[in-house]
Design brief:
heterodimer; A: 431 residues; alpha+beta; Immunoglobulin-like; ABC transporter involved in vitamin B12 uptake, BtuC; 12 helices; B: 330 residues; mainly alpha; two-stranded antiparallel sheet; 13 helices; 2 strands; 67% helix; 2% strand
Chain lengths: 431, 330
Amino acid sequence: MTFLSRSLKLSNLFFATLLVALLSVAGLGQSASADEVGTDQPYAITGNVKLDGEPLSGVRIFVKGGSYEAETVTGADGRWFIGIPDTNPYTVTLDETTLPEGIAVVEGGASDEVQIGKSDRVVKNFFIGEGVRNSSGGVEQFFTRLIYGINFGLMLGLAAVGLSLVFGTTGLSNFAHAEMVTFGALMAFLFGVVLPLPIWVAIPLAVIVSGASGWLLDSGLWRPLRRRGLGLVQLMIVSIGLSLTVRYVFQFFVGGGTLQLPGFDAPKIPIFGTLALSVIDMASMGISLAVILGFAWWLMGTKTGKATRAISDNPDLAAASGIDVEKVIRTVWIVAAGLAGLAGVLWAYFRPGIKWDMGAQILLLIFAAVTLGGLGTAFGALVGAIVVGILVETSSMIIPSDLKYVGALVVLVAILLFRPQGLLGRKQRIG
Amino acid sequence: MNWEAIINNTAAGLLTPTTLAFALAALGLAMHFGFAGLLNFGIAGYMAIGAYGYAIAVLTFGLPWWAGMLVGMVGSVLFSLLLGIPTLRLRGDYLAIVTIAAAEILRLLFLTTAFEDITGSADGLFGYNSRPDGSGFANSNPFPPGDYGFGPWTYNAETIWVILFGLIVLAVCTFLLWALMRSPWGRVIKGIREDEDAIRALGKNVFNYKMQALIIGGLFGSLGGMVLAAYSNVSPGVYVTSLTFFVWTALLLGGAATIFGPVVGSIIFWVMQAFLTNILPELANAGILPVSSQQASTLRFVLVGIGLMLLVIYRPQGIFGDKRELTFVK
């Protein structure tokens, strides 16, 4: 009996830990913040921040390399410790804005590359003293952030136009759009790394399979549900259920870790001032632009595109004019899923890394983009996405970087307050 | 397969602080969605406000536990006002997106290192239940140390105190919801759910009624967060959007527009979770399911998602609901 009751008390404790542990895996961009992070990693970078022999506390240190990112703040003794997963080179950065006034890194720069040597630890100390911060000018910094923001925004735009088209033609706020983004990245991984095909074959293949998944989703789930006459709210909750299901199916197959596509660590080429872009970054922007232009031509120039816009405006009138609404909606799902899949591949390079919940991390940003531009308008979604992308990247110059998504979400709330129809939407849409 | 342990752990899921916290949050959602027709997808934010408000008031301002909980409730009222003023005039799905975004903003604010001194950042908050000056929740425990209950429902003194507290709060809230919904006020609320314009034509201020419903439901949600906080630590990783979706699943399971549906739905949700948590890894280890035990524990969230879809498609009114009460879901 005593054994039984003890095991049961354990089970009670288990419930709390269950909730904490299993809900925390779904977190968004969490960063640890003790003076020791990643103590469970096999290797570590450590250091000691001192000014004239006096330890400095509260100085922020970043470590970044490959898909791994960690940051910590020095303790009262000035020490810091960051665990790293492998022996690849890592960039260690000291955040000069957290140093006292008039103090800066005087030698070697505030950012340096560090690699694990023979032991499993490596020490990186910064030489700090009175001096002018070697940070680039505000304008230059802003320009760099702006380019990153446009890159991020174009990628968001690919996902946002699809979400907006689906909303425009069917009225569905599709929460599972995030999983369509992740799906594209996972398919690129399947074709480019598991099989492995050359990446220039793997990515188009991933986009095609994503498009096919959109067709499957529409004919297997959404069309039958529309036929059943489910309401929009019901459909929205179904999409939430689908999102949960698919997200955990991804986790089932790939686990909680991060996967990398080939070429993710391509070297950054300095272009102008602090701006450095890798070949992948430039290709990503080029591809986004080309695809978006192609999409615009499809929407404005082709018959299907015209039919899509007609249905967005007034489905009943469109049907009465002889447009095959179901056929157009099917096409919209294929296009939306294909674009989301491509966005997933580019997001995997931008982060970098593929994770089971990578789509869910940006779902609200995609919604923010769509709402900002005007729900149901394709080009509005694009404009909204670029604004959101630039806002997210540039806002981290002013607010802490772990709050950079907050700015975009506040804009989402504010736009609904002042202009609920969005930038390019028309007033009647909010009904 | 250890069937005795599986059955015992499953039965224990019937009454835990987590189940009670879920029931309270689902009750708040029933007020929002089931009775007032408001699509609130930010219930995790309300729970976070309750938990953080209580813990911060005790830790940072040194208030006794009951005052801390009042602070949490005031916080949830403020959150409702902040959220409701811009959004209650919007259509349903807009409200859903705004509430989900607001809850996420809150969580990021609790998580950021910028306010680490107050919020504890990623580590969360702890040590507020038991205070050295005897003003903490655990210090007011009337139960002397020892074991209470029987069979699968045996609890230590700390847990039984949280459970008793949670049960009292839940009973009061359930009674309040029942009393409100059979009052004239409740009839207006249900009328707004069915046809907002008709109620406006009767001369009622629809916005005010909606705001009152948002505040009351939000209070229930924040109390749920406090029960959770009274039992374990406050951790930002708990109050994610998935928590909102799980509470929704529990609510829809029991029936959105019912009084006891949210409570029963939460119990079913957590008994099922306890059962699956115990049986799936056992099946994997016994070689019946061809998966690793890690994958087996992922499976039960897949099942939550599938369950949510099937529920909404085939029985949107839930187990106890009346289909005529849910005609507003269009």
